[in-house]
Design brief:
The complex is a heterodimer of chains A (262) and B (534).
Chain A: H1 4-26, H2 43-68, H3 74-81, E1 85-86, H4 98-115, H5 117-141, H6 147-184, H7 187-210, H8 216-240, H9 251-261
Chain B: E1 3-4, H1 12-17, H2 21-27, H3 31-61, H4 72-106, H5 115-137, H6 151-181, H7 194-224, H8 238-242, H9 250-255, H10 257-269, H11 276-292, H12 313-339, H13 350-373, H14 384-412, H15 418-444, H16 453-459, H17 463-496, H18 524-532
Helix pairs in contact in B: 3-4, 3-5, 3-17, 4-6, 4-14, 5-6, 6-7, 7-10, 7-11, 10-12, 10-13, 10-14, 11-12, 12-13, 13-14, 13-15, 14-15, 15-17
The chains are: A mainly alpha (262), B mainly alpha (534).
Chain lengths: 262, 534
């Protein structure tokens, strides 16, 4: 018996073949060229024909794979798993951050294409990372019949990767932002900034340690505000640029030192 | 025997309960939530588009007021933004939103297939629409006649349009997959309700044609980003390459689901069962209407010398075929109305009236489209383009209002004021008709499609043209009034609307029940009534 998946993919395959043949005959194809994969026309027309035929081939492969693995066939799955009651064909999925983050990554990529190559690369990295995370989430959800176990499985697999990478990236970004702030300030100002930021961090940590009952939400809010402040200040400082540095040995530096002494 | 069990509660459900409103809004993957997001965003863009249309018509009415847009190039940019936004940011999203909410329950599926991809589609479209609009506001858009726009902003508009197309295509793939492989037992393709059928037909055609628009954008983008544009990326020709989407025959494809909306509403509203042959004919005629709307081949920009596509037999034939097909579809509705005329009360339901008005507008648009194709009239580059678009898109908008009044309770859980909804639909109908007819007649008088300020000053001496532009302006005012009324209706529904009943219309199709019903015909709930006698 043909599975639903096979019918779907095979239907798409037929649609693409028909579209390709239609495209072939309506853009100058004659005799048996468009139906024998032997048609060549203008560059654009030929590309359309070729893409549609490649698409049709891909759909056919998907259909065969779907049929080979008995996709969506209740009886086959029941026999394979040795159980009588099967879950619904379309399980409800929970809320997910991946779609919105993936869309955001794609948008950053698109904007970066126009604005700046660094933004474009950041977009690609985000899309790849989200794609990987999304794939692992989907895999884990079908790993066993127990959703709780599946969730645990994903955590055990991904947390050892996510925590070090996100932690390193997070620390790196904060260090970069703080360094921009210090480099854009004057020499004395940088000392003051470092002292004040250090005191604030130390004071906040001391305050939190003295109040063990403080809620998780409050701690998250404090951290969010603090990190946001550092990042915003870092971006502004990067835009302002670094202060003038006086290098030893250069004529300009010597003159500056003299000026300062004067 | 193998049975299908209910899925165990997801672990995610527990964590979802701890989420804030914004988190739930952003992460939700249920088809109704995604559908509501599409509809809400589409409504906002609809309002903004009509405001823009109103401002553009002020300039057409009084050419001296073009300074609203600062110069002619800006006027052109916003003129093209109006066309793009009313179709790709308003009508299509609202139809996708309705389909997301209505199609799965209508065919007996418990949710949309690929729910996360569906959410992804919405967010890609949403962010892409923002980038597109930003590109226009930053002096980009689809170029300008005097090459006076910011090239980076033009590029930004093009990539925004690509994201919009990608979002629509991903969502449509989810809908098509749901219709093809998510149907419940017994719901074969011949039995699926007409709305789901027309979504399948139009969705397929969107999938086949929108990538062509994407290809147009990519070609223009690649050339534009070169040191100096060779041809396709030149700012004075970008719009010419993509304008085929907003005119005959492609424009029909975007509003095709209005046929499904009308055919799902009318038989229930007049309480009759359509004859099966009638149902089959509707499926065939609506598919034919979709096929003649395939417009990716009709790109005048790529005409080879001596063979303009608009004079080719296929183009002319489809323009003429649209009229009898629209009339046949109207005839089917009329027969159903005649059969159920005894069941009609003095105050028929608002969705019924609006469905009929939308088909009437579609016929008007098809007639204008057929007139355009008559070569001796020389209407192809005149304001009859605008007329056909206004009538056809107006038809789609009125049908969407009808659908919101019909299925709104199911989607939102609250009932809207039918009277206000009716006023909104009638205002849009009247506005589209007035504006469409005036522009159509102006087309015969030679008024150009893109009415530059210089041209306006030339024709201003012709009093009749001026009077007709005034009528078109009044039409725009009425459409704007309709858009504002629609937003008010929906706001009132959200704020004070009474809780909706499960099946307020005594519907025939599966979306109106939460029980398991055997599907043995295209109207399973009516079968149940026949069996139980209730």
């Amino acid at each position: 018996m043909l599975s639903t998946g096979f019918k779907f993919w095979f239907g798409l395959c037929l649609l693409m073949v028909v579209s390709a043949v239609f495209a072939g005959y309506t853009t100058g194809g004659t005799e048996t060229g468009p139906i024998s994969l032997g048609w060549k026309g203008g560059v654009g027309n030929h590309v359309v024909y070729t893409l549609l035929m490649i698409g049709a081939g891909s759909m056919a492969v998907m259909g065969i794979v779907s049929q080979a693995f008995r996709d969506s066939d209740l009886e086959a799955a029941s026999e394979l798993l040795g159980i009588e009651d099967l879950p619904q064909a379309q399980n409800e999925v929970g809320n997910s951050w991946w779609p919105v983050f993936a869309a955001l990554g794609l948008s950053i990529l698109a904007v970066g294409l126009v604005v700046n190559s660094a933004v474009f690369i950041i977009g690609i990295i985000i899309v790849l990372v989200i794609g990987f995370e999304w794939t692992i989430t989907n895999w884990s959800e079908k790993a066993t019949a127990d959703p709780r176990l599946n969730s645990e499985l994903r955590e055990r697999l991904m947390r050892p990767i996510e925590i070090p990478i996100i932690g390193t990236l997070g620390i790196g970004v904060v260090v970069l932002a703080v360094s921009r702030i210090l480099l854009s300030s004057s020499v004395t100002g940088a000392v003051w900034v470092a002292t004040i930021v250090g005191i604030v961090i130390f004071g906040t940590a001391f305050f939190i340690s003295k109040r063990p009952s403080i809620s998780r939400g409050v701690i998250q809010s404090i951290l969010f505000l603090g990190i946001s402040g550092i990042l915003i200040a870092g971006v502004i400082s990067a835009v302002v640029g670094e202060r003038d540095f006086h290098h030893k040995g250069s004529h300009h530096a010597d003159k500056s030192h003299v000026d300062e002494k004067e | 025997m193998t049975t299908t069990d209910i899925a165990p509660d997801s672990v995610a459900v527990t964590s979802e309960q701890n989420q804030t409103f914004v988190e739930r809004l952003v992460t939700n993957t249920s088809n109704s939530s995604i559908g509501k997001s599409w509809i809400f965003s589409g409504c906002i863009y609809f309002l903004l588009s009509t405001v823009l249309g109103f401002l553009l018509d002020i300039v057409r009415f009084d050419s001296d007021s073009y300074l609203i847009f600062s110069n002619v190039d800006k006027f052109f940019q916003f003129w093209s933004l109006h066309r793009t936004s009313i179709v790709l940011l308003a009508v299509v999203p609202m139809i996708i939103g309705l389909a997301m909410c209505v199609v799965p329950p209508q065919i007996g599926a418990n949710s949309i297939i690929f729910p996360r991809a569906a959410a992804f589609g919405f967010w890609v479209w949403f962010l892409g629409s923002g980038i597109t609009v930003f590109g226009f506001l930053a002096d980009g858009g689809f170029g300008s006649p005097e090459l006076d726009s910011q090239r980076e902003a033009v590029a930004l508009t093009l990539v925004g349009l690509l994201l919009v197309i990608a979002g629509i295509c991903v969502s449509v793939i989810c809908l098509l997959t749901t219709i093809i492989s998510g149907r419940c037992m017994g719901m074969n393709l011949r039995r699926i309700p007409v709305f789901s059928w027309t979504i399948m037909v139009s969705g397929t055609l969107w999938i086949l044609t929108l990538p062509v628009l994407a290809a147009n954008s990519i070609i223009a983008y690649v050339d534009l980003r070169g040191r100096s544009a060779i041809y396709f990326g030149s700012e004075d020709v970008i719009w010419d390459q993509i304008s085929w989407v907003f005119t005959h025959p492609q424009i029909y494809v975007f509003v095709l689901p209005l046929i499904g909306i009308a055919y799902d509403i009318v038989p229930v509203a007049v309480k009759v069962r359509q004859k099966l042959y009638n149902h089959d004919l509707v499926l065939i005629f609506s598919s034919l209407f979709g096929i003649i709307g395939f417009g990716a081949y009709a790109q005048p920009f790529f005409d080879t010398p001596g063979t303009p596509v608009r004079e080719e037999a296929l183009y002319v034939l489809t323009a003429f075929l649209a009229v009898p097909l629209a009339l046949l579809l109207f005839g089917g509705l009329f027969e159903t109305l005649r059969m159920g005329s005894k069941n009609l009360t003095r105050h028929p339901p608002a969705p019924l009236i609006l469905s009929l008005l939308s088909i009437f507008l579609l016929i008007s648009g098809a007639v204008v489209g057929a007139l355009r194709a008559i070569e001796p009239f020389e209407l192809l580059s005149t304001s009859s383009n605008t007329a056909q678009m206004k009538l056809t898109i107006g038809a789609g908008l009125v049908a969407i209002i009808a659908a919101m009044l019909w299925w709104g309770g199911l989607i939102v859980g609250k009932t809207a004021k039918q009277g206000f909804g009716l006023i909104s639909g009638i205002l849009i109908t009247a506005g589209s008709l007035l504006s469409g007819l005036a522009d159509s007649v102006n087309g015969f008088l030679g008024l150009d499609d893109f009415t530059t300020v210089g041209f306006l000053q030339e024709v201003s001496a012709e009093q009749i043209v001026k009077i007709l532009i005034a009528f078109s302006f009044i039409g725009s005012v009425l459409i704007l009034g309709g858009a504002v009324a629609l937003i008010l209706v929906e706001l009132l529904r959200f704020k004070n609307g009474p809780v909706s009943e499960l099946d307020p219309w005594e519907g025939h199709t599966l979306e109106w029940t939460d029980e398991i019903v055997m599907v043995e015909s295209e109207r399973p709930l009516l079968d149940e009534v026949g069996k139980t006698g209730t």
